[in-house]
Amino acid sequence: MEFDPLLADPTRLKILALLASCDWADFSFVCDAAGLSKSALSKQITKLEAHEYVQVHKGYAGKFPRTSLRLTDTGRTAIDDHLAALQQIVIQSRQHRPPQ
């Protein structure tokens, strides 16, 4: 379990957390849920995809283009390990409180 520097960015952490709760998510849903513009989400997805944390599928729903996103096994391991490392920090901070 390690703290992941890529997920130190709260935006990327939020994206992975959203994707962890579903199989595939529509790009527009993630934009809205994360409070991001399409261009901002696209930039973050490019970084996450480069680390193989996210898989992107581009297709069509009828005549309309549709982009779907999913968390890969690598991405799921990364977010699980990152959250466990954060939890460990919280536990340690509670154990080492100064006397009052």
Automatic annotation (TrEMBL):
InterPro entries: ArsR-like_HTH, HTH_ArsR_DNA-bd_dom, WH-like_DNA-bd_sf, WH_DNA-bd_dom, WH_DNA-bd_sf. CDD domains: HTH_ARSR. Residues 2-88 form the HTH arsR-type domain. Pfam families: HTH_34. SMART domains: HTH_ARSR. It comes from the Bacteria. GO terms for molecular function: DNA-binding transcription factor activity. This is Helix-turn-helix domain protein. It comes from Streptomonospora litoralis.
